[in-house]
Amino acid sequence: MIEKRNLLYVAAAAMLASTGLAHAKTVCYVNAADSHAYATPANEALQERAKELKIEILSLSQDFDVQKGTEQLNTCVARGVDGIILWPLDPQAYIPGLARAQQAEIPAILINSPMGEEAKPFVTSFTGPDVYEEGEMAADALNEALGGEGSVVIIAGQAGNGTTIGRVGGFEDRLKEISSGIEVLDTVNADFDQQKALVVSRDLITRFGDDLDGVYANDDTMARGFIDAWKEANPSKPTPPIVGINGQKDAFESIRTGEMHATIVQSPVEDGRLAIETMARILDGEEVKDRLPIPLTVVTKENVESVEPAF
Amino acid sequence: MRYVSLALQYRVGIILGLTLIVSAMLVPGYVSATTLSLGLDRAATIGLIAIGLTVLLIAGQIDLSAGSVFALAGIVSIMLQPQLGILPAAAAGVVVGMVAGAINGALVVGLKVHSLVLTLATMLIFRSIAHWITDSQPVTGTDIMFSLALAQIYLDVFTVRSALFVAFILLLHFWLTRTIPGRNVFAVGSNAVAAEESGIASGRILFFGFVFAGTLAGLAGVLQSLVTNTGSPVFGSTLIVTVIAAVVVGGTRIEGGKGSALGTLGGVLTIGALTVAMEFQSVPAYVQQVVSGFILILLVVLDRTVNTRRKAAADRPAFVQGNPIKQGGSA
Amino acid sequence: MTDGVAGVAHMKSGDRFTRGSKAVEALSKAGLLIAILAVVLYGSIANAAFFSTGNFLNVLTSMSIVGIVVVGMTFVLVVGGLADLSVPATIACGAILSLGLQPMIGPVPSFVVAVALAGAIGLLNGMLVGYFGVNPIIATLGVGTIGLGIVQAAVGGVIVYGTNPASAELVKGRLFGIPVVALIFAAIAIVGHFVLSRSFWGRWTLATGGNYSAAEASAVPVRAVKAGAFVITGLAAGISGGLLGLTLQSARPLVGTGYEFSAITAVVVGGVSIIGGFGSVPRAIAGLVFVQLLTNVMVLEGVRTPVQGFVLGTLIVCAVGMDAALRKRGGA
Amino acid sequence: MTDAHCALDMKGITKTFPGVKALSNVNFSVKFGSVHAVVGENGAGKSTLMKVLNGSYPPTSGTIRVGGAEVRMRRPADAQALGVRMVHQEINLVPDLSVAENVYLGRMPGKWTLLRRREMVAKATAVLEELGAAINPRERLGNLSISQQQLVEIAKAYAADPRIIVLDEPTSSLSEHETAALFSILRKMRDDGIAIVYISHRLKEVLQIADEVTVLRDGSMIETRPIQGITAAEMISLMVGREVNNVFPKSPAAIGAPVLSVENISDGRHFRDVSFDVRAGEILGLTGLVGAGRTEVARAIFGLSQLTGGTVRLGGRKTAVRSPSDAVKAGIAYVPEDRKGDGIVPAMCVRENISLPILRQLSRLGRISHGADRALAGHYVSQFAISPPDGERRINLLSGGNQQKAVIAKWLAAKPSVLILDEPTRGVDVGAKAEIHNIIGQLVAEGMAVLMISSELPEVLGVCDRVVVMRDGHASVPLDRKALSEERIMALATGEEVA
User: Fold this and answer.
1) What integer pLDDT is reported at residue D173 of this predicted model?
2) Is the ipTM of this complex over 0.85?
3) Mind giving me the DSSP string for C170-186?
4) Is the CB of B38 inside 8 Å of chain A's CB atoms?
5) Which intervals hold domain ABC transporter (chain D) (predicted)?
6) What is the number of other CB atoms lying within 10 angstroms of the CB of residue D162?
7) For residue A9, what are the domain limits?
8) Cβ–Cβ under 8 Å, residues A84 and A109
9) In a shared domain, residues A236 and A142
10) Chains with 3 or more CB pairs closer than 8 angstroms to C?
C-alpha cells in the first residue's frame, strides 16, 4: 500500500519534472523537517498555495540537521531552480550556500526563522514569525500573570537550535528590559519533546517544589509534559501559570480548563502561505519588503474562544 | 556462474553505475558539471570521515564518536580565529580531532574494551564538551569572505573539500595496498592474535587507526565550519550512520580484515548520487531513508552470499585443489 | 593454549584460584550496589528533595519505559548480538500504531497490533542476523532506517494524537500507590529474568553467546535463539512505545530517538558483556537504576545538561574499563 | 656441551600466575643442528615453557641464553629478533591476506614502509618450493585447506631463517603422508644447523624424528635423555609417573543388529556415495587422511551440514536429519573434533554444559528443573570421575581430558543409540586417553553403537571392531580389524600399494 503510494509519488514527480519544466517556475523549499507538529502543516500550506500559483516546489527536508541543509542549498543551485525558500536552523551556516545562489542569480527568502545580520545581503526577504519576539511576548504574558515577581523555570527546546535560542533569548532580554522581578531558577533542555519534558519536569517539581511560581515552555508540547508531571506529583493542586508557544489545539483546551495561562498563536498555515506568496511576487519581478511578519497573538482565557488554534 | 561471482565482487561499481544511469534518464538536469561538482562537494564531508572509518573497520574497530569530533573540531577552529587567525585556528581544530582520536585509541587499547561501547561513551563526552564550551550556541567566524572563497569551484569540478577528499582516497588506496603498515592493518583486523605473535604491534596500529580516524573527522569538521563560517554543537549529530552505511556499502567488512579505499569511494559516491537524484525529484526524506536502508541491507546480504560461496571453496579438501605435497614418502 | 595454565591451576592450588575469581566476581557484582548506595547517600545529603517517596516514584516512572527496552536489550547483548539499533523505529512503531489505530479498532487491539508489528520488525532483524549472518549493527541500522521510513510514510509524516483518554488514564494511573507503568515494567523484568536464568531458552541464549559453534553442536537451535533475542527486543520496544504513546497521547516518528543508546548504556554499566555469553536482567536493571539515580541527583543539583552527558559518558568508560580489568584479574 | 653448540639454554625458569605455579625451576637446553622433543601430559607445562621461549610470557625468574648470550624476552617480537620462531598447533595466520603476505607477516620486505610485493612473492615461491608445497603464493590464505595452511605456517617459520624453531603438535592436522613429508623437511633444517624443539603427544613420531627428549611433569623438568635407548613405554611412565600397561583396552562386547546404516550418502562437495553400517555393541573406525571427508561425513549424519543424496537409516527406519536437534531426537550424538571450538561453552559450568542438549527434557513449561539438572551432572561427574568432582566449576578451568569427559557425558545424557566420536583422544594426555577408551568400552558393552573417527592408527587398530578407510571422499567397505595392519590402512588411505 505504502510502497505503491511512494512509487506513484516518484513517478508523478518525474513526470512533472520532465514535462512541466518548460511552463512552470520551480522553487526550491528547504524545510526544517517532514514530520513535525508545526513544520508539517506549514509545508502542506506552502505546497497547496504553490499549486494554486502554478509554481512547482522542490521540497528538501533537513530533518533538523543544519549541515544537511547547507548541502541541500547546493542541490538547489545545481538543479537550477528559480527561487529558494530556506527554513534556517542556524543564524550563520547557510551564508556560503546563499552566496552561491546569488551568484547563480537565484533569489532566496527565509521562512519562519531569521538569520544573522551578515546574511542580509544574500536574502531578499524574511517572512514568518519572529521567534525572538515570541520570547518577548511570552515574557510579558508571564510577567503579567505573576504580577511582576516570582521564580520561574524555562523548559527550552534543543540546545543550539535557532528557535530555542530566539525564544529563550527574547524571554530573558525582555524580563531585563522591563526590569521585572521575575527570577529564572533554571533553564533545562527538553528538545521540543513531550516525554523529555515530562521527565525533566518531574525533577524540576521535586527540586523546586513550592518555590515554583511559573513556567515558560518553548512550545506547547513541552508545556503539556510539565502539566502531566505536575498532575502526577500534585493531583489536587492547581498548576502554576504556564506560558507556551505555537497555539496548538490541546493548549487551547488547557487554557480553557485553566491548566495553562497563555500560548502564542503562530499559524503554520499563514507562515507557509506567506513565504510562497512572497516568492511568487519576487518571481513576477515585484519589489518586496525585507521583513514580512505573520501575525502573532497571545491567547489567554479572555480570548481563547475567539481565536482559532494554529493546528 | 563466473559472471555472477564477478558481478558480486564489483557490486558497488555496478550499483553506482545503475544509480547514475537511471538517474540520468529520469532526472532532468542531473548530468551536468555543476551537479557533479556540487554532488562531489556534498559527498566530501561524508567521504573524509569515511576514509578514517575505512581504516578502522578494516582493523576490526568502529568509531561512533566521529560526528561529535566533527562538531568539536569545527567549533574550536572557529572559536580560536580571533586569537590565532584563520589558518592556525583551523590547524588547531584538526589537532583537536587528532587528540580526540588519541583518547579513543588509548582507551580502547589500554582498557582492552570493545570500541563500540567505548566510542559510544566518548561520543557523549565530546558532544557534551561541544555544548559546554559554546554554551549550546552556534559560534561565528571572523571572516565570511574566507568561507565564500573556500566554497569556490575550481576547474569546473572541484571545491577545496572535494579535491582533498579525492586526493586522500587515492592516497589511502596506495597506502592500504602498497605499504607494509597498510597490509598490517588488514592483518590486525583479520586475526589480531596471529599479527601480534608475528611481531606486529597491533596495539600501536589500532591506536594510530583511531588517531587517523579522529584527525580526518576533525579535518572534515574544520572544513565544514570554515565553509559555513559557523561552529555548532549540533553539527554532525546524525552523520555517523550515513558514514558507516557508505563504508559498508563500499564492501568493507565491519568485522575487520576486508575493505578497500576504492570501495569506500564507490560507497560514498553511490550514497551521494542517490541522495542528489532523490532530492532533485523532491522525494520525501522518509522515502529516501527506506531506499538507502534497503540498499545497505541488500549489499550486505550479497556480501554474505559471496563469502559463503568462498568459504565453501575453502572447505574443499586438499586434493581438489591439487596435491599439496609433491614429494615425501608414503607409509 | 590456556589449557596448560588452567590444568595446573586445578592440580596445584585450584581452590585458591577459583576463590580468587569468585572474589572478583563478587566485587564486580557488589561494585554496582555500592555505587548505587553512594549515589543515594550523596543525594540524600545534598538535596532535601531527593530522599522522598515522591522523588523515588518519579525516578521509577521515568525509568520504566526505557527499562522495558533494557530487558530486551540484555538478551541481545547476552546472545552475542552486540546491540539492536532499530529500537527507535520499533518504539515509534509501537507508539504511532497504538494511537493511530484507536479510532478504527479500539485501544486494546491497537496496542496488540502495534506490539505485534514491532515484534515483526524484530523478527526481520533476527532473520538477517541469525539466519543470514549479517552483522547486527548493520542489520539493525538498515532495518531501523527502513522501518522508521515506512512508519513515517504510513502517517504521512505527521503527529498522531490519541482519541481514547480512558486508556491514557489507565496507563498514567496508580495501583496501590505504584504507577501502573512501573508495575508493567516490573512484570516484564521478572518474566525476562525468569526466562534468561531459569528457562531452557535462557540457557540456550547464554550458550549461544558463550560459544556459538559448541551450542550448535549441542543441538541448540542457535539461529532461532539468536533471532529470538531480536524478536524479544522488538516486542519489548513495541510495548515500551505503546505505553509511551498512551502516556503522552501523541506520537511522532522520532519519539524513540536515543532510547537505543540509553538502553545499551544501562546494560553495559550493569556489567553485561558486549561480547556475549554472560549477563543477567537484574544486573542490567541495576545499571539502569544507577544511571537514573545519578541523572536524577544531577538534575536536582542543577547540573547543566552538557555536564550530565559528560558524566554519563565518563561513567560508561569507567564501567567497561573496570569490567575489563576485573575480568583480566579473574583470568577468564 | 660448549656454548657455541648450545642454541638455547634455559636455567631455573619459574613462571607463576596469580595463585598458580605453572613452571618451577625448569632447566632446558637445545643444541644447534638437533631435534629436541618435549613430551608431557596436558598441563605439564609444555605450552607455558614454549610461551616463555616465544616471549609471550616473561618468566618470573630464571635466565635464558640464546646462542650463548643472556637475553630478556618480553614480547614475541623480541624472540623473533633473536631468531626464535614458533609453529603453533592451532593455525594462527591471517585468512584475509595472501599466502606470501602470511609467510612474511611482521617482516614484509620493503623500504620506507613501501612494500616490495614482487620481491616478497618471489621469495615466498622459493620457500614454498623448497618445502615441496604446491601453493600459489598470491592465493588468499583463507581459501586454502587446513593442511595447506599448516604448511604455510611452517613455511612462515622457515622463511625467517630461524636459529631455533619450535613446533607445537605440528602434525595434528596433517595426515601420515604429509607428516612424512614434514619430517624430511625437519631433517633438512636440522642438517642446516637449525635447532628444532618438537612438542608432540605422538610418541611414535618423537622416536622417529628426535635426537633428544625432555619430559615435563607438573611444571617441573623430569629428565632429558638422548633418544637412543628410550622406549615409548619408558617415556609414558616418566610422563605420568607410573607404568601404564594397556594403552588400548579392548573389552569384547556382543555385537548385535545394525543401528545406524548409511547408504550412498553424498554432500555434493566433500564425499560421495559413502555406505556403511554401525551395529549395536560395535566400534566402527573411520579413518583416512585429513581432508578425505571423514569429519564431513560425521557432521552430515549429525545434521550440521546437509546431505544431497543417499539415505540414513536408524534401527532400520529411514530418517531425515536436517539439524542437530533432529539428530538428538533420532538418537544420534556427536562429540566433535575441536573441543574448544565446538565442544564446550567455556563460560558455563560443567553442569550447564552437560545438560545443554537435553534441556527441554529437563524443563517443564519452559522452566529448567533445578534438581534434575544437578542430579544429571552429579551422576556423570562421579561415573566418569571428572576431576575435580564439582559440577559447579567453570568448565574451562578443567584439564583437556576432563573437559573431553564432560563433553562425552553431555551426549550420554541424551541417551543416544549411536555415538559418533571425532578424534576423541586428540590433545588428551595418556592417562585421560585410557580413561576415555575405558568409557567407550563400557558404552559398547551396554549395547551402544559407536562410530569413531581417528587418525591415530594404533588407536584405530587397538579399539575398533571394524574399520572404514576414506580416500578422496570415497569410503572403503568396512574391513575387519583382524584383517588389517597399519600398512594396509595407509595403502588404502593414500591409494598407493605397499611393496
Assistant:
1) 67
2) no
3) HHH-EETTEEHHHHHHH
4) yes
5) 8-243, 242-497
6) 22
7) 2-128+268-293
8) yes
9) yes
10) A, B, D
